[in-house]
Each structure stands twice: as structure tokens, then as C-alpha cells.
Design a protein that fits this description.
It is a single chain. This protein has 185 residues and is an alpha+beta fold. Helices cover 41% and strands 27% of the residues. The strands form 2 sheets. Strands 1-2-3 form a 3-stranded antiparallel beta sheet. A 3-stranded antiparallel beta sheet has the order 4-5-6. A hairpin with an 8-residue loop joins strand 5 and strand 6. The longest helix has 35 residues. The two termini are 43 Å apart.
Amino acid sequence: MAFSARGAPPAPDTSALYSQAMRSHPPGIIRVDHPPSRTHAWRVTVQRRGQIVVKQFSDRRYGGRPAALLAARAYRDHLLATLRPLSRRELCQIKKRSNRSGYVGVSHYCQVERRADGRLRRRWYWCASWTPVPGGSPRGAKFSVNKYGGRQAFRLAVATRRRALAELDEDSGREAAARAKAISR
């Protein structure tokens, strides 16, 4: 390894890491460039269970963009290792802004069909949806408003969604037991 005139090892070449990071957009890290306020930094944002942690890594303080990005990534990785990840059930219960039913995974749906005579027919349903396996195909059930009535169809959809979440808990318990058994071997 070559050393500088002062006897210290040379600074690592971080330009390749920087350009790679810029292409891949590291999750939880964004670039802030605001010339009027002379702000040039990487911002780390991590949210868990309603708590938001935000910290900026200034280019000037860390000696340039690449070094600031490396420090931001290290901090983000430390946060993710420290903060307990959300369980599968907690992920499935995050309520989105667009939710209009008041229950996560339950929605009102209108199916439009064209009859043989050309007229349109609208059928309303309350739907329950969930994804049993991360990254797997979504599952669902729909309950006709015409058949059950609006309130009963909604109650059935909510009950179906709750049963599906309870099965998620049972499955994750089985998976944890299987992992523990595999580790103990």
C-alpha cells in the first residue's frame, strides 16, 4: 500500500461507490442540493412504529459527496440494525391515506358488465385482500352488496381480513419454529 508524504494511508477512492449509489438510489437516503441556502448533503430518513429519525450528512463536513454518502449509508445501516423491523402483521396493518373504508385491506368495488342488449350493469362488492407470502400473489374475497346488503357484506369482508391476518401470525410462528429447529441442528 502506498502512503502519502505525511505517512498516512491514502484516502479510499470512493468515486466508483458514489456513482454506483447514485444509479441505484439507496433506500432511505436522498440527495439534498439547495444552492440558495448552500445546503449540499445526503439525508437519511428511517421510520419505525410512528418514530421518524432524520439526519443530514453534509458534503463539506465529510469531505465531499462520496464520503458523505458512505457516512450516510453507515448511519442508515446502523439504524436498521438497531431498530426492530416491522413484523409481517404490522406491515399488513399500515393504513394508507387512500383508504376509504376505515379498515386496511378492505375496499368497496364496482364491477361493470355489458349485457347482451348493450346496457351496462353495475355490481357492488366489499372486498378483503391480503398477501399470505411476502412477494407472493395476493389473495382476496369479495362479498356482494346485492346478496348480503351493504352492512353485512362489509362485516363479512372485515371478518375475512381478520382471519387472514390471524393465519399470517400462525404461519410466521411456524416459520420461526422451523428456523429455530434448523439452527439447532
